[in-house]
Design brief:
By secondary structure, this protein is of the alpha+beta class. It folds into two domains: 245 residues, Cathepsin B, Chain A (Alpha-Beta Complex), CATH 3.90.70; 170 residues, Jelly Rolls (Sandwich). Helix content is 16%, strand content 28%. The chain contains eight helices and 25 strands. Strands 2, 4, 5, 6, 7, 8 and 9 form a seven-stranded mixed sheet that branches. Strands 10-3-19-14-25-11 form a six-stranded antiparallel sheet, with helices on both faces. A six-stranded antiparallel sheet has the order 18-15-20-13-22-23, with no helix packed on it. A hairpin with a 6-residue loop joins strand 22 and strand 23. Helix 1 packs across helix 2. The longest helix is centred in the N-terminal third of the chain and has 15 residues. The protein is globular, with a radius of gyration of 22 Å.
Length: 501
């Protein structure tokens, strides 16, 4: 079983070194190039460690699928994005979190808000099951559903194979780009040992059953977790390090007292403040545990569930709630350049930045009704503008140069969002001209964080299929002087638009 420890100073130095090598954008934090080019945020040290281990495993001819000592497949890949800053913010700023008036015990199953326990089999797909445990939970009650993890792990578009592991960011990107979700009966799971003669599946004619519009990303504290479960009515997707030595089979209690890199994805569905500290193989500092839904079938744990101590040291600080899935009738056209979603963040050494995408109006989406983007922190303020019939020229190399503020302004809207991926419905829909360019401009202000802009960029072994061409995505420190992201590498900003006729 994987036993890597977080290694502090060494890994931080490695993160800085590799991120400088991998991207022409990178400068030490806070330093901005004179020509208005932004700089990348540091890469997650846990991701770099995982990447190095993957290279070593391949060289040794070992399987990419990690397996526990008792034979259960794992599959979590650390996010490329270093969200350790969320711990420093540790925001308990929402009214629900501040109230802290919660019952001693809570269980989403008592409210009909949890789908049956699944079994990932011998496939590194726990991240897909962890994400869908949250999304399926949100759809209940009233929309009994079983979503196809197999389609997610087959069609996510990243470099890892179906069972090669993944992240919640990958799940977010797949859902945000309308890749899914697909109903289970249209794309059955094929990686169980008991599976045989499965029906042939094809993704060519499959359409998403829902449009997933929002994903909450938060730092996991007891109050934030309780607020999320009760406010959204959805399971919370988390990750942690798992080893049988930390698990008490008789009580189904789990407590890891070491600082380990997470390697397994699951979902929290409840809590018990009085769950005894004596129920664990090692004694935590106090009582209390989260009720967790696993993806190893009902034959494991307490019919597929277990209790994780509030004090588990391997529990990843970042948690996800896939809480907004609506009818696909809301929009029938998506404008996007980032099907792989956010692979990096960048900024200008301050908490404010601008980004813009240039799209060509489509008859099916000539009325733009909403835009979507990633917010790295809570209380992110945004202002979005839409200009139609923007002008295009060519530079000395013949590449397209677009002025995002040219043309006619047809929409402007502002607001505030929490950390995560969000879709903002325009109060006044914007009519654009079919066949002509229009711009979506976004100004973000991210309190306490100096890398406001999410981008999709190619990275070997992870997102190498990401690509961009000149004239698509622009960034700016002031909203007037714009920089084309393809000048250094083929990157696009993560900024979508949704429309209909």
């Amino acid at each position: 079983m994987h036993k890597a420890k977080r290694s502090g100073r060494h890994m931080a130095a490695l993160a800085l070194l590799l991120s400088m090598v991998c991207s022409a954008f990178v400068l030490p934090a806070g330093q901005v190039r004179a020509d208005d080019r932004p700089v990348l945020a540091p890469v997650n040290p846990d991701y770099l460690e995982w990447q190095n281990e993957r290279v070593e495993a391949r060289a040794a001819g070992e399987s990419a699928v990690k397996v526990t000592s008792d034979g259960h497949a794992l599959g979590l890949v650390p996010s490329r994005i270093d969200r350790s800053y969320l711990k420093d913010m540790a925001s308990e700023s929402s009214p629900a979190a501040k109230a802290a008036n919660y019952p001693v015990t809570y269980d989403l199953r008592d409210h009909g808000k949890v789908t049956p326990v699944r079994d990932q089999g011998q496939c590194g797909s726990c991240w897909a099951f962890g994400a869908y445990a949250s999304l399926e939970s949100r759809l209940l009650p009233g929309k009994q559903t079983d979503l196809a993890e197999n389609h997610l792990i087959d069609m996510h578009g990243f470099d890892s194979g179906p069972c090669g592991g993944g992240t919640y960011d990958m799940a977010t990107a797949y859902l945000a780009s309308w890749g899914g979700p697909i109903p289970e009966n249209k794309y059955p799971y094929e990686y169980l040992l008991t599976s045989s003669s499965l029906p042939a599946t094809s993704s060519s004619a499959l359409m998403a059953a829902y449009h997933v519009q929002d994903v909450r990303i938060m730092f996991l504290t007891q109050n934030n977790l309780k607020a999320a479960l009760t406010h959204y009515g959805a399971a919370v997707s988390i990750s942690f390090y798992i080893d049988s030595s930390y698990y008490n089979e008789s009580t189904h209690g789990y407590y890891c007292n070491s600082d380990k890199v997470p390697d397994h994805a699951v979902a929290i569905v409840g809590w018990d403040d009085n769950y005894s500290s004596k129920n664990f193989t090692k004694t935590p500092p106090g009582n209390g545990a989260y009720l967790v839904k696993n993806s190893w079938g009902t034959g494991w744990g307490d019919k597929g569930y277990f209790w994780m101590s509030y004090y588990d040291k391997s529990l990843e600080g970042t948690a996800y709630v896939f809480y907004s899935a609506v009818s696909t009738k809301n929009y029938n056209w998506i404008y996007q350049y980032d099907p792989l979603g956010s692979t990096d963040h960048m900024g200008y050494g301050s908490n404010t930045a601008w980004m813009a995408n240039i799209f060509k109006g489509n008859p099916l989406g000539s009325t733009v009704k909403a835009v979507s983007f990633y917010a790295p922190v809570d209380n992110t303020s945004y202002t979005v503008y839409i200009y139609k019939d923007v002008t295009t020229t060519a530079d000395s190399d013949g590449n397209a140069v677009v002025k995002p503020r040219s043309g006619t302004k047809v929409a402007a809207q502002r607001g505030t969002v929490t950390a995560g991926y969000h879709t903002v419905k325009l109060t006044t829909p914007a009519k654009v001209t079919a066949g002509k360019n229009f711009s979506i401009m976004l100004r973000l202000k991210t309190p306490g964080y100096n890398y406001p802009m999410a981008i999709e960029a190619p990275h070997s072994g992870f997102s190498s299929r990401a690509y961009a061409i000149p004239g698509q995505s622009y960034v700016s420190s002031d909203g007037h002087k714009w920089y084309d992201l393809t000048k250094d590498e083929k990157a696009n900003v993560c900024l979508k638009a949704f429309g209909s006729k």
